[in-house]
Design goal:
Elements (H helix, E strand, L loop, with lengths): L10 H18 L19 E2 L1 E3 L6 E3 L22 E5 L3 E8 L14 E7 L9 E6 L6 E6 L15 E7 L12 E5 L13 E8 H6 L7 E9 L15 H4 L4 E4 L2 E4 L8 E4 L6 E7 L5 E3 L36 H7 L240 H21 L1
């Protein structure tokens, strides 16, 4: 008997209260719960520790919490070796685990009168959370609860009160009860506090995957989780892993599908993506798989039956096949009449592009009052659609780095190396294997100051950065240096003026990049067109807002520097420049650039 404790229950009173609660719950809350079954919790090796990346150092570590900051059964503890919180999933359930400094079970069938739980962010907005789940030892009988928080009353508050109870599992420690097996205590294998070690315990609990799916949370949805304890059975209020500020408490995103949980820290995570064509098209974002690779979480919709409605209903890549098309322009006559184009004229707007090839023909992309099929310049950049390699995206220079016909402004793989731009660690340098020697998410092919093959030409300017090619020999002129080029043919024999700028290679300060005037603003012997740091200010051209002006900020009007917008100290900084991530990346880049500059001299 534990009648000396404030939460003690006498035998008869506990029996009557428990029966009454079950009867009332069964009458009033039938829609809140499904029949629950005892759980098989994952083995210790399967649990994924919740981790957090420091925004200043970019170091990722398991979430911890010091011992002694909250009393007794509410004292959550952990460090890098013994993490504070874990998560896992399988085909039917999500599982949660917290490390506690002492046992949470005053008896074999009841938890202490407190709460332990986690809040879950599903929209990647760190100022609010959408769901919470906790174990309540305050209710009688004990419960595992799943709540929805549809309205964040106080931004950034991890203790915001949720509004809707989605599911509850009653009496999880009592064999034969409705919620038996949905929560437990387990030995943790650690001994906090370190000064006077005592055994720690895990409190584990589970909620059904179907409850999240019914609320619109898919298997590939990134989740951010923060955990703590409670003085009640509804919301967290004590012993978080830090100050009660939700953005600082949420762990790094995880995706928990039917085979487990994966930390979402790979390059490209969160960038938009799509799958399917026509009516089957869907959108999503890149998420990280178990191998640490970014994959699109969008899946094509189910194809339908093709009808004449200007939509690819059966998702085969052809719109309205089988419908009449008098002018053979790719649009059926009924569709043309509906759009207002001429079914007898294959190019109704005379822009050089057949009506059926007009991108999004029924949309007015530039807002000038004319749909694209009747607008010779759909993006309003001054170029007719027939010659514009990005007809819906302004790109007056028609830049097309990989020569695939799609302008860089609308090409999802600018360098044509088979790696899509959102996940490419060198967007404008061919790097199909994504080599990254220093692990900074900037590929070796475009790493300022890095000369992988030791031929004296930095990777960003080397036409064969993986094999020495000091003279940048490219006999067929395809931009790929001969040592790396599998199809080199003797088309153009080498001359003493490789870049054909009229300056012999022996006197050319950029022998492989046209620099007829031999401009060298920083006087370092490398011409401006091939100098990775044109103004020698230690800031590589790729991230230097004023690559030919050595000032790191510009007290004078930026117009003094032709075609350059300088950073004005204290104003006008871009969002990237105001981010600590930008300056961390910049510091690493500067180091490489200065090392290269010293090697030149």
């Amino acid at each position: 008997m534990n009648s000396g404790r404030p939460w003690a229950r006498s035998g008869m009173r506990a029996f009557v209260v428990r029966c009454f609660t079950i009867v009332v719950a069964g009458v009033l809350l039938p829609a809140l719960r499904q029949t629950a079954m005892a759980q098989t919790f994952p083995p210790n090796a399967s649990w994924l520790p919740l981790q957090r990346t420091d925004p200043m150092t970019m170091v990722t570590t398991p979430i911890g919490d010091p011992e002694g900051d909250t009393a007794g059964e509410r004292d959550v503890v952990g460090n890098e070796q013994f993490p504070m919180a874990y998560v896992w999933s399988d085909t039917t359930h999500y599982y949660f685990r917290l490390r506690i400094d002492q046992t949470v079970l005053p008896s074999a069938t009841s938890f202490a009168p407190f709460g332990w739980g986690c809040v879950i962010d599903t929209d990647l907005d760190p100022s609010d959370y959408e769901f919470s789940t906790l174990v309540s030892g305050i209710s009688n009988p004990d419960e595992v609860r799943l709540w929805a928080n549809s309205t964040q009353q106080t931004p950034n508050d991890p203790g915001d009160t949720p509004e809707t109870l989605l599911n509850t599992y009653l009496d999880p420690l009592t064999l034969g009860s409705m919620g038996y097996g949905y929560a437990r205590e387990a030995t943790a294998g650690s001994n906090f506090p370190l000064a006077t070690p005592t055994p720690d315990f895990f409190i584990d609990w589970a909620v059904e995957r179907s409850s999240f799916e019914s609320a619109g949370v898919g298997a590939q949805a990134p989740l951010r989780i923060a955990c703590g304890t409670a003085a009640n059975g509804t919301f967290l209020s004590q012993d978080y892993s830090g100050p009660a500020n939700l953005p600082d408490l949420l762990g790094d995103p995880v995706v928990c599908d039917q085979s487990g949980c994966v930390l979402q820290n790979c390059a490209g995570f969160g960038t938009p993506c799509s799958a399917g064509v026509g009516a089957c098209a869907s959108t999503g974002t890149y998420v990280c798989n178990a191998a640490g690779q970014a994959v699109c979480n969008a899946f094509p919709r189910k194809p339908g039956v093709e009808v004449c409605d200007s939509v690819d209903n059966n998702c085969d890549g052809t719109i309205d096949e089988g419908c009449g098309d008098s002018d053979m322009d790719g649009l059926t006559d009924p569709v043309e009449l509906d759009l207002g184009t001429d079914p007898e004229d294959p190019d109704s707007d005379n822009d050089g592009l057949p009506d059926g090839q007009e991108p999004e023909p029924g949309i007015d992309s530039d807002g000038d009052g004319a749909i694209n099929a009747l607008d010779p310049d759909s993006d309003g950049d001054g170029l007719p659609d027939g010659v514009d390699n990005c007809p819906l995206t302004k790109n007056t220079d028609l830049g097309d780095l990989d020569g695939d016909g799609a302008g860089d402004a609308c090409d999802d793989d600018d360098d044509g190396d088979g790696v899509l731009d959102p996940v490419d660690n060198c967007v404008r340098h061919v790097n199909p294997v994504q080599e990254d020697e220093d692990g900074d998410n900037l590929g070796d092919a475009c790493e300022p100051g890095l000369d992988s093959d030791g031929d004296g030409v930095a990777n960003p300017f080397d036409n064969c950065w993986s094999d020495a090619n000091t003279n940048q020999q490219d006999i067929d002129g395809d931009g790929i240096g001969d040592p790396c080029d599998p199809d080199t043919l003797p088309v153009d024999m080498p001359t003493d003026d490789a870049d054909e700028d009229g300056v012999p290679d022996t006197r050319d300060n950029c022998p492989h990049a046209g620099n007829k005037e031999q401009m060298d603003i920083d006087g370092d012997g490398f011409g401006d067109t091939c100098d990775a740091d044109g103004d020698n200010d230690g800031l590589p051209n790729e991230i230097d807002p004023c690559p030919l002006d050595p000032r790191s900020s510009c007290p004078n009007p930026s117009g003094e520097v032709m075609d350059c917008t300088c950073r004005v100290t204290g104003s006008g900084s871009s969002p990237a420049e105001s981010s600590p991530f930008f300056w961390l990346a910049l510091s690493a880049t500067l180091y490489g650039a200065r090392r290269r500059t010293r090697q030149r001299r």
